[in-house]
Design a protein that fits this description.
Blueprint lengths: L7 H18 L7 H12 L4 E4 L6 H11 E2 L2 E5 L6 H5 E7 L5 E7 L6 E5 L6 H13 L1 E4 L2 E4 L5 E6 L12 H4 L4 E4 L5 H10 L12 E2 H13 L4 H12 L10 H6 E3 L3 H17 L7 H12 L4 E2 L1 H5 L4 H11 L4
Parallel strand pairs: 1-9, 1-10, 2-11, 3-6, 6-9
Antiparallel strand pairs: 4-5, 7-8, 12-13
Helix pairs in contact: 2-11, 9-11, 11-12, 12-14
Length: 331
């Protein structure tokens, strides 16, 4: 793999590719521009994302439409309380050969696809969640002592209903950390909701066209890795992470006051990688502190844990992240 920074032509091509995907998704998804950008950043950095919002906000439609705009295999797993780990990863079955011998054969589960939609991942018990998240991390499945590699590219885009709803099993923080982004899907604006009503109560609905292949995605992933990051930008990302940790010398006063615990080292890696992709999507061949700040909210959203003092003052992770960005000066 080349370590040379992408030239202007390569940057323009990547920006154009992302705009083509956005344009195709725009045929189906009205609004949600930030959500689409964050999903693309997750894919272009070879990472996974968790979409959070109340039911009915087109989270599933967004992911299935994205699969249509990319020439990739797509599987949807509907998580339910009775789903078993083998229902996701696959299992071995015994079959008879022509000679009458009995042999084991691996039947691949739905996780063997380029894009996997893990729908309502917090509706299933921890054992099944753990099997899913292990496969995400290792990018392979072990059954009967044999490893089965997952295809490349491979992304899990999971959806989660708000944990206050009945019948949910919240993902532990250590497992949440495996998602690069927690993407917040909000209600549409008044104008967007009006457009949605017009678009989906007629006789026809648009379908996205395929604009990128798996090979294109892999090339973009290589280009993202090769984007240079100056030391002062890296230090800025490091500082954003380190000031979140209550009880340490570097922690900001309000982080000591409002956070139960702060972001771990994986947050710093995510900040730098996501900032590289954010730069490319905006036509830059270098990373600035502004790119790091732009991707911080969905990275910190599930990695800094507000305590009771913060909750009593009506402060969530996003509000505290905004204060952190305001308090840490770019180098």
């Amino acid at each position: 793999m080349s370590t040379e920074a992408p030239d202007t032509a390569a940057v323009d091509k990547i920006k154009s590719s992302a705009e083509s995907v956005r344009s195709e998704l725009g045929k189906v998804i009205i609004g949600q521009d930030d959500v689409i950008e964050q999903v693309l950043i997750s894919i272009f950095t070879r990472n996974h994302a968790l979409l959070v919002g109340v039911p009915g906000l087109a989270k599933t439609l967004l992911i299935s439409s994205l699969a249509e705009s990319l020439h990739l295999t797509f599987k949807r797993i509907q998580f339910t309380p009775d789903l078993m780990p083998s229902d996701i990863t696959g299992t071995e079955v015994i079959y008879s050969t022509d000679t009458g011998d009995k042999q084991f054969k691996f039947l691949a589960g739905p996780i063997f696809a380029n894009i996997v939609l893990a729908d309502e991942i917090n509706r299933t018990p921890p054992k099944t969640q753990a099997a899913m998240l292990e496969a995400m991390q290792e990018r392979k499945v072990s059954v009967g002592g044999e490893d089965h590699k997952l295809p490349e590219p491979f992304f899990v885009l999971a959806t989660q209903n708000p944990i206050e709803q009945e019948g949910t099993y919240p993902l532990p923080e250590a497992q949440l950390d495996r998602f690069m982004f927690m993407i917040k899907v909000d209600y549409p604006s008044e104008d967007e909701e009006f457009e949605i009503m017009k678009a989906y109560t007629g006789s026809t609905t648009a379908k996205p066209e395929t604009v990128l292949t798996g090979e294109d995605i892999v090339e973009i992933q290589k280009a993202v890795r090769s984007v240079p990051v100056a030391d002062h930008v890296m230090r800025y990302a490091e500082k954003l992470v380190r000031v979140t940790r209550p009880g340490t010398e570097e922690a900001l006063d309000f982080c000591n006051k409002w956070l139960g615990w702060g972001a771990g080292p994986r947050a710093g890696l995510a900040l730098v990688l996501a900032a590289k992709a954010h730069a490319l999507l905006n036509g830059q061949n270098h990373v600035g502190c502004n790119n790091v700040a732009a991707v911080a909210p969905p990275i910190f959203r599930h990695r800094i844990i507000p305590n009771f003092a913060a909750q009593s003052e009506g402060l969530d992770a996003d509000a505290i992240t905004a204060k952190i960005i305001g308090a840490v000066e770019p180098h």
